[in-house]
Amino acid sequence: MRILVTGGAGFIGSNFVRRTLATRPDTRVTVLDKLTYAANPASLADLDAGRCRLVEGDVCDAALVDKLVADADLVVHFAAESHNDRSLREPAAFVRTNVEGTVAVLTACARHDVRLHHISTDEVFGDLALDDPARFTPQTPYRPSSPYSASKASADHFVRAWVRSFGLRATISNCSNNYGPRQHPEKFIPRQILRLLSGRPPRVYGTGENVRDWIHVDDHNDAVWAIIERGEPGQTYLIGADGEASNLDVVRALNRAFGRDADDFEHVTDRPGHDRRYAIDAASTRALGWTPRHMDLAAGLAGTVDWYRANEPWWRAAFDAAEDFYAATERRAAPTARVPARGAVRDVGN
Ligand code: NAD
Ligand code: TDX
Questions:
Q1: CATH value at residue 126
Q2: Any domain includes 312
Q3: For residue 268, is it within any domain?
Q4: Which atom of ligand 2 is nearest the CA belonging to 121?
Q5: Using one digit for the tens of pLDDT, what is the confidence trace for 19-63?
Q6: Which of 76, 241, 299, 335 would give a disulfide with 207, using CB separation of 3.0 to 4.6 Å?
Q7: pLDDT band at residue 347, thresholds of 50, 70 and 90?
Q8: Does a structural domain hold residue 106?
């Protein structure tokens, strides 16, 4: 099977490529990646060149995408601008890659009748109140909050439009927050690990009560394969591993993993529009026979710490650049305002 993986030099995509080559001997992979700041070609450098090639290019380059799709049996579309904080500073890049890039992939897949799996996020559903017992399901209405999540929501709508209008064989998955090896140092968990490895305390936005539903990247990618192999074209699948934890919980667990006082961290300026809570009901993907294997978050974090500890050449330059990025706006702050609960200011007008 010839697989085109867009965004395969990024966090989840590179783990997908590695896992695919390791577990499926009948596969060959072409990675299309623009090698933006978020990519790290070292994530693919040790792979068998006979089974994995990297094409440096833009997913918005319709002619290039068409040529690569014509040679594929399957496309898995990970390429995106993926960081909420950056989407607040440079939203246009998110519209371009996440929306126009997806349309280029859809157009080529429809032209060549190639099966597509589109990687999306739980953030398209907006957020839940901290005291709301609900979780996201495939029926939850879209209500994105940030330029990032709005661009991903738009991309999902275009996928469904291509399924309906052009008979494209496509599935969509909306996954919760991933963690694990090879995640860019700008993201929450690696940032805190690398600050701790560099002798600096973790940094929590606002009160730190915001909740994310953590899943190990290998569990996400196994779910993607379950959908590719057993999912129904045209359907949407939600992926999550019942891993809800507040940012405070995560930072305290990391401090403990480093043998530090759990409460030795800094509060900094909150993210504007900061989503309160995400929570996934993954019944749609579990129905395909998939079950997550990394259910112990503390153990998963410990393994992730070990990986970063052993791979400084992989992360050093990106970590320094990410800390510069944050230093431009981030200030120490007292955690005075609570995260708004249900019915508070953010829900007015929805
Ligand atoms: P990432 O930022 O680590 O990787 C994105 C990759 O896409 C990078 O290698 C980058 O170079 C590439 N890319 C960006 N613009 C491109 C363009 N114009 N053309 C070609 N390649 C381009 O992101 P990630 O965390 O691995 O996320 C991958 C996908 O999974 C994204 O679609 C994201 O929305 C989705 N997702 C991520 C999470 C998460 O927790 N990280 C959760 C759910 C869904
Ligand atoms: O230094 C930090 N301190 C902090 O408290 C950083 C970088 C983040 N945070 C908070 C913000 C969030 O509540 O941690 C939480 C996680 O932040 P991110 O890692 O930026 O992830 P999030 O915004 O939740 O989005 C992620 O999950 C869904 C991915 O980046 C998206 O690509 C994915 O779609």
A1: 3.40.50.720
A2: no
A3: no
A4: 34
A5: 999 999 999 999 999 999 999 999 999 999 999 999 999 999 999
A6: 335
A7: very low
A8: yes
Could you give the number of structural domains in the chain? 1
pLDDT tens figures, 158-169: 999 999 999 999
If you measure from the C-alpha of residue 16 to the centroid of ligand 2, how many angstroms do you get, rounded to a whole number?
Answer: 21
Provide the domain limits for residue 55.
2-179+216-239
Q: Can you give the chain as a three-state secondary structure string?
A: CEEEEECCCCHHHHHHHHHHHHHCCCCEEEEEECCCCCCCHHHCCCCCCCCEEEEECCCCCHHHHHHHHHCCCEEEECCCCCCHHHHHHCHHHHHHHHHHHHHHHHHHHHHHCCEEEEEEEHHHHCCECCCCCCCECCCCCCCCCCHHHHHHHHHHHHHHHHHHHHCCCEEEEEECCEECCCCCCCCHHHHHHHHHHCCCCCEEECCCCCEEECEEHHHHHHHHHHHHHHCCCCCEEEECCCCEEEHHHHHHHHHHHCCCCCCCCEEECCCCCCCCECCECCHHHHCCCCCCCCCCHHHHHHHHHHHHHHCHHHHHHHHHHHHHHHHCCCCECCCCCCCCCCCCHHHCCC
What is this structure's pTM?
Answer: 0.96
Residue 343: band (very low, low, confident or very high) from pLDDT cuts 50, 70, 90: very low
Determine if ligand 1 sits within 6 Å of the CB of residue 58: yes
Is 148 noted as a catalytic residue in this protein? yes
Ligand 2 atom with the shortest distance to the CA of 212: 24
Ligand nearest to the CA of 9: 1
User: Which atom, in ligand 2's list, is nearest to the CA of 149?
Assistant: 34
